[in-house]
Amino acid sequence: MRKPRDFDAQLKALKDKAKQLKDRKIRQYGDLIIATGADALDIETLAGALVLITEQADSSRKESWRRKGEAFFRKQQHPTPQPSQNDDQVREAAEVSHQPFHRRVTAPGS
Fold this sequence. Notes:
This protein is mostly helical. It is elongated, with a radius of gyration of 21 Å. It is built from four helices and no strands. The chain has helices spanning 7-36, 43-55, 59-77, 87-97. The protein has a domain at 7-56. The longest helix has 30 residues, at 7-36.
């Protein structure tokens, strides 16, 4: 006889995998925001820019953005060391770039 399938366990495993993928995607978006320097913007400005981009209907403009993004990632794959930076600055930058994104809350007036 065949062993009955445990649908509950399979469903739980699928839900866990979906949660892992969603968490990974969120972390990658945060890393992208930091890598591009967009984390210097306040959250409302960044959200407004993203909404404007998604509403953009001009396909030539979208293609231009895609090419610029592709060039950005190619540049990231082959970073060139800056001879003017000392080892401490390079190490600190590497540590910061590997930290996960968290929404930064600042006190008024900071």
